[in-house]
Amino acid sequence: MKKYNCLLMIVLLSFTTFGQGNKYVQGNGKFEGLAMSPPMGWNSWNTFETNIDEKLVKETADIMVASGMAASGYNYIVLDDGWMAKERDANGNLVPDPIKFPNGMKNLIDYVHSKGLKFGLYNCAGTSTCAGYPGTRGYEYQDARFYANLNIDYLKYDWCNTAGINASEAYATMSNALKTAGKPIVFSLCEWGDNKPWDWAKPIGNLWRISGDIYPCFDCEYHHEEGNWSSWGFMKILEMRKDIRKYSGPDQWNDFDMLEVGNGMTVTEDKSHFAMWCMVSSPLIAGNDVRKMSKETLAILTNKELIAVNQDKLGIQGFKLSEDDGLEVWVKPLAEGNWAITFLNRTEEFKEINFDWKKNLIKDVDFGFEADFNTTTFKIKNLWKNKEVGTTKKNFSSEIASHDVIVLKLTK
Fold first, then answer.
1. Residue of 57, 18, 24 lying closest to 41 (CA atoms)
2. Residue 14 pLDDT > 80, yes or no?
3. Based on the domain organization, do 331 and 293 belong to the same domain?
4. Are strands 405-411 and 339-345 parallel, antiparallel or unpaired?
5. Candidate list 53, 81, 143, 213, residue with the active-site label
6. How many helices (H) and strands (E) does the chain have?
7. What domain range is 337 assigned to?
């Protein structure tokens, strides 16, 4: 028995001794708490694609501040695909395109920061980006140090040229690399929802795309001739995924893609697009040329009442309550027992609304909120008109134009 105890002691000591070299635990997961409300900002892709340069970024930063966009919450400027040279340098580092950015990327980032704004860049989990620039596969930790040294605040990470790669592992690797580099950076997963990131991305990223690219139309599919893929109208994206709202919330947002407000739809459709992104707690990332936007576009993007719905501290994604002959009712729980209610006309003709509150009990089965208008009366405010319009004691009656929305806030 004594021999057995001695042998056991030797074995245990051996494991302890030889295991001491493996005590390092790698920092895993995203930087927590960087996106407690849906991120707001501007991204270059929708309007400019790869035609970006230093002048565009500086002018955009200037206008975002001067126009009131920054004061309204739009604080990220994100350069999408096309910011880098076609090849890495001799040490394997990414190289900002010296023609597009003659004063260097660090100088540009410092300029954006001097305006009180934050700065983001783009890359891809594959061997190359969607536009054919150097991807990050095999360079994750090196690229993370590069971003940290540049002092960026946001990384959009795409999913092109990823044959044979496991999505959750690829995004986890980049998330861990950012954490190891030490600079807090919002991590935006742009995986298009193909591998259901809402199932696995909560510990990895702060937001994740749930669809392919958006297109500036109400309810269309735009098929790209140069490849076997489509872009989608905002209504297509709005209803592309089912039963995922329960995965969205503070620091873990379902991303319905960048805004197309000001990019060719009617003003009415722009209003509906913006309102629905606010209702579903999507990040509000403008994608227009802010240097040329109309006063109507600016008014939509900076509507403080709608932005407050999007940025509500509960962080709960809204849902469709009912649909009747193309007239939809969407609801979103808000803090302090309040609600946002949106009427959306998907048809090509005017509709009459006569909504009987007492016949429409709201139950949020995912988060447990409910509103019974038989027992509780709410004040009603029309958020586009910024006007009080009665209470829930009476039916809400209005006419609503084709493709239009009416957004109400109900306050106890």
1. 57
2. no
3. no
4. antiparallel
5. 213
6. 10, 20
7. 319-411
Q: Give the mean pLDDT of 344-359.
A: 97
**Listed residues 274, 292, 310: the one ending a domain:** 310
Q: Residue 85 in contact with residue 97, Cβ under 8 Å?
A: yes
Residue 127 tokens read as: 């061997």
Which letter does DSSP use for residue 151 in this model? T
Q: Is residue 168 in a domain?
A: yes
Q: Specify the CATH number for the domain of residue 211.
A: 3.20.20.70
Q: 25 pLDDT band (50/70/90 cuts)?
A: very low
292 and 404 inside one domain: no
Q: Is the pTM of this model over 0.85?
A: yes
Query: Quick check: is 158 catalytic?
Result: yes
Tokens standing for 379?
A: 């004040």
Question: Looking at residues 374-401, what average pLDDT do you find?
Answer: 98
300 and 328 in a common domain: no
- 143 carries an active-site annotation: no
Q: Single out the residue in 287, 310, 333 at which a domain terminates.
A: 310
pLDDT digits (tens, 9 = 90+) for 274-295: 999 999 999 999 999 999 999 9
User: How many Cα atoms sit within 13 Å of 360 on the Cβ side?
Assistant: 17
| 211 and 355 fall within a common domain | no
- Within 215-374, residue ranges assigned H as helices are 234-238, 267-279, 295-301, 304-310
Note whether residue 7 is domain-resident. no
Q: Phi-psi bin for 149: left (phi > 0), alpha (psi -120 to 50), beta?
A: alpha
Looking at the structure, tell me whether residues 386 and 351 fall in a common domain: yes
The length of the chain is: 412
CA atoms within 13 A on the CB side of 317: 25
Up-side HSE of residue 231: CA atoms within 13 Å toward CB? Answer: 14
102/172 Cα distance (integer angstroms): 34
pLDDT in tens, 110-157: 999 999 999 999 999 999 999 999 999 999 999 999 999 999 999 999
Check whether residue 73 and residue 136 sit in a common domain.
Answer: yes
Is 402 in the same domain as 260? no
Question: Are residues 385 and 256 located together in one domain of the fold?
Answer: no
Structural domain count of the chain: 2
First to last CA, the chain: 76
Catalytic pick among 158, 251, 257, 312: 158
How does residue 27 score in pLDDT terms, banded at 50, 70 and 90? low
Nearest to 331 by CA among 377, 278, 393, 390: 278
Selection from 158, 147, 139 nearest residue 87 by Cα: 139
> What is the enclosing helix (H) or strand (E) of 142?
helix 140-150
Euclidean distance between CA atoms 297 and 286, whole angstroms: 10
